[in-house]
Structure formats: structure tokens, C-alpha cells
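Project outcomes to date are best conveyed with an example. Our students and postdoctoral researchers have been running inverse folding experiments weekly, and each run begins with a structure described purely in C-alpha cells. The record below, which covers 370 residues, was selected by the lab manager from last quarter's runs and is presented without edits.
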């Protein structure tokens, strides 16, 4: 619990640091005057005072170093994202606060943002703001805690999938959930799951299914769909058959009175298609008729598709809910952070962030004193 206490105290310190530092105006002149006063006072008490002054100077040197590293990382973000000075300053404050209580420092977060800042802004349609940065980096931090994915690599994987699936910054948590759930379900690494989802997208484009629903199909069909990344590829083939029916499939669906398009000629989506076909499938009189329908629609995948079609949209919803019941990435990360080792990992990052926050205010003056 020591680390949690330190985190809380550090958060309180950051909340008041601007007010405390305002006593020396946060300017070079103010800091110089304050340090001159401290130095004078130390000299009056001799060697002990000198030792205390040395310790204070050492802390400020550490704060200056942390602030310089953070400023450099922020400059990289600014250049990549073409941010104004005001936007960069606001982002810096966001990262400083966001990092507290995590195993990533504000410098780590800025370094993770820099390579993808431009791409991320194309997704959001505007300059990176506090809400966007918080959504993305919180999701990436949870991925780091849950699956030990490097923060920079995880941030890029999330942004790549947001772009591929045409999602927004607010969907970053859902993407992380899918990556963690997919890794647990399929028994493969997060990087492999991300790559599989990327390869899958062209097959399921226009389906209207989320990544969680695609994993739900895997859950519903069980061993029949295979394991690892192959399972997702199998799902993609099935869904593609519903989006772009073959000539034989179109004829078979017409024969049972099923249309996959609305009155305006728009595709109704894979979930609705599954439900419509399911109703007609379950109404067929014999197993031979059911088998023939599946063969016409899914070809070689007919046997694999049987469970999905028989269950309809309700079966898909149930399977997806079962997957979600295992917990979100954020919930799993919160539980893992209760581990003593994870708590202790907070301490050095927390102290680094406190030093950074103080150093960013005092940096101009410190450069003239130390």
C-alpha cells in the first residue's frame, strides 16, 4: 500500500504545485531570489546548512533533468502534430496529471504520442486535446499492464486499428478490450491479434460488426472455427459470404424469401442478415433442407456456419456478452495493479512525474542557478 499512498500524495502535490510555486512567481528572477535566500540562510549555519543546501540543489537538479527530458519529448509531439505553443503547453499539463498513478511517466507518454500524433489527428479531425490524449494513452497504459505491451508499440497498434476500422478516439478503450480479449481467447500475442484484425477488415468491411462481435462469433462456434489467428480468418470468410453472396447463395436466399437489402437497396448488416437467415433456416422442415441452404450460402464453410445461423442474432449477442463478462482491459489492469510488485513499480514513475511537474515551472530559473 506504500506505493498507493505515494501516488495519492503525489496527486495532491501536483494539484497544488502551481500555487506553491507562485510564491516565487515561477520566474527566473523569483527562483533566483528564493535560492539566494536559501543559500544565505544555509551559510549562517555552517557545514550542516551546506549539506542541506546541497540536498536541495540536488533535488532541483533532478527536477531540471526530468523537465528537460519532458520538454524534449513534448517538442517532438509538437513538431509531428504541428501544434501551437499553447496547445503543446495544454497537452503537457494533461500528460503530467495523467501519468500520476500509472507505471508510465509523462515522458513515456509523450514519447508514445510523438510517432503517431499526425496519424491520430487525421482520425480525430482536430489537434490533439486533453480528452483525446487521455482516451488513447489510458487504453495503451491498460494494454501495458495487462499484456506487457510496450507503451509506444501499444499506442501505435491502437491508433492503427482505430484508423483501419474507422473509429474515433473515444473507441480506444474498446479496441484495447478486443486486443486483450482476443489474446486471452485465441492464445496468441497482442501483436498477432492486432495484425489479424487488420488483415480481417477488408473481408468484413460493411458488415457493421465490432471487433468484440467478431470474437463473439469465435466463442459461439467453439472448436469448429479453429484456434489462433486462423479462427479470426475463418470468421472473416463466413461474414464475407453474407456481405457478398455468391450467385448460388443469392438464389437460395431468394427461394426462402430472404433479402439482405432494405427498401432503399442498402445492405442490412451482418447481424441482421444472420437473424433473417436464422429464422428461415430454423423454419425449414428437414435437416437435408437446412444442410442444402448452408451449402449454398457458405460452401465449404457450411459445417462451421451451422451454429452461427441456428443461434441467430440472439446467439451472437449471448456469446459476445460471455466474452465481455470476463472483464474489460481497464478492469483487469486495475486488479493487476493491486499486486505488490505493480504497486512498487509506481514509486519511481510517480517521483519522476513530481520532479517533472516542478521542474517545468522552475526550469528557466534553475538554468541560471545550477
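After processing, the design step wrote out the following sequence:
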Amino acid at each position: 500500500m506504500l506505493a498507493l499512498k505515494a501516488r495519492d500524495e503525489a496527486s495532491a502535490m501536483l494539484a497544488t504545485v502551481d500555487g506553491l510555486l507562485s510564491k516565487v512567481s515561477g520566474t527566473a528572477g523569483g527562483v533566483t531570489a528564493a535560492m539566494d535566500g536559501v543559500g544565505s540562510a544555509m551559510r549562517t549555519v555552517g557545514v550542516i546548512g551546506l549539506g542541506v543546501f546541497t540536498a536541495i540543489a540536488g533535488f532541483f537538479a533532478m527536477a531540471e533533468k526530468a523537465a528537460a527530458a519532458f520538454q524534449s519529448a513534448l517538442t517532438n509531439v509538437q513538431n509531428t502534430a504541428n501544434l501551437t505553443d499553447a496547445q503543446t503547453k495544454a497537452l503537457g499539463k494533461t500528460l503530467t496529471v495523467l501519468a500520476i498513478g500509472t507505471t508510465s511517466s509523462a515522458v513515456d507518454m509523450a514519447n508514445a504520442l510523438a510517432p503517431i500524433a499526425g496519424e491520430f489527428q487525421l482520425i480525430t479531425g482536430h489537434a490533439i486535446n486533453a480528452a483525446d490524449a487521455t482516451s488513447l494513452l489510458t487504453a495503451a497504459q491498460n494494454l501495458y499492464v495487462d499484456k506487457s505491451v510496450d507503451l509506444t508499440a501499444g499506442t501505435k497498434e491502437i491508433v492503427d486499428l482505430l484508423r483501419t476500422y474507422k473509429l474515433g478516439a473515444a473507441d480506444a478503450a474498446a479496441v484495447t478490450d478486443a486486443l486483450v480479449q482476443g489474446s486471452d481467447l485465441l492464445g496468441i500475442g497482442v501483436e498477432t491479434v492486432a495484425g489479424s484484425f487488420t488483415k480481417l477488415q477488408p473481408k468484413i468491411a460493411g458488415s457493421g460488426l465490432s471487433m468484440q462481435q467478431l470474437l463473439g462469433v469465435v466463442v459461439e462456434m467453439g472448436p469448429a472455427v479453429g484456434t489462433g489467428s486462423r479462427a479470426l480468418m475463418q470468421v472473416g470468410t463466413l461474414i464475407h459470404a453474407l456481405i457478398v453472396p455468391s450467385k448460388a447463395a443469392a438464389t437460395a436466399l431468394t427461394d426462402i424469401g430472404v433479402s439482405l437489402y432494405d427498401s432503399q437497396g442498402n445492405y442490412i448488416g451482418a447481424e441482421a442478415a444472420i437473424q433473417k437467415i436464422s429464422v428461415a433456416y430454423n423454419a425449414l422442415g428437414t435437416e437435408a433442407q437446412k444442410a442444402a441452404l448452408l451449402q449454398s450460402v457458405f460452401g465449404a464453410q457450411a459445417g462451421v456456419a451451422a451454429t452461427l445461423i441456428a443461434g441467430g442474432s440472439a446467439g451472437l449477442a449471448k456469446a459476445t456478452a460471455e466474452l465481455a463478462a470476463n472483464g474489460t482491459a481497464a478492469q483487469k489492469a486495475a486488479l493487476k495493479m493491486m499486486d505488490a510488485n505493480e504497486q512498487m513499480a509506481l514509486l519511481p514513475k510517480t517521483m519522476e512525474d513530481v520532479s517533472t511537474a516542478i521542474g517545468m515551472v522552475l526550469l528557466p530559473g534553475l538554468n541560471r542557478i545550477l
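The CA atoms of residues 227 and 264 lie 39 Å apart. Confidence is low (pLDDT under 50) at residues 1-7, 16-39, 41-57, 365-370. The training component of this project remains on track.
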